[in-house]
Protein: EfeO-type cupredoxin-like domain-containing protein
Organism: Limosilactobacillus panis DSM 6035
Amino acid sequence: MSKRFDHGIISHGRTFYVDVCKHYCYDYNCKYNNEVIKMVKVFALIIGIILIALIAWWFFGKHEQAAQSAQVKDNGQKATVVVNGGYSPSTVVLKKGVPGQVDFDMRDHTACLSHVVFDSLGVNKDLTKQKITTVKIPTDKAGEFNFACGMDMFHGKVVVK
């Protein structure tokens, strides 16, 4: 049976005290436990700050890849973008005035990457119907055509120079 006293609780032969932080500790180790608790709090704060910084970098940082130029042949130019956990390369360069197309090589069948959307061209293609899906790009004038997955989480662009 427990008895309640002003300075703590006596229970089953052990005495416990409540410290300011509302943590329970044994009689002889209170000072030690408070120091450990402070160290754990500081360590958790440092780890939390590092994790927040990494998450912010991952979502908001620029992750530029080298732009890939299209292969020019007799009847036009063609570039291939591999779809596998994102778009690689995420930037494709086409020459102005030469008919161009971008082939999307689908290797990742997640729901997010199942479509490619070019808002400025009015293109929304399902990439799961075949391994390679072709999107024709107008190259009559210089500019950029941004594309994204169906959920607007992964992005890329086609640059016409």
Notes: Residues 3-60 form one domain. Confidence is low (pLDDT under 50) at residues 1-6, 13-22.
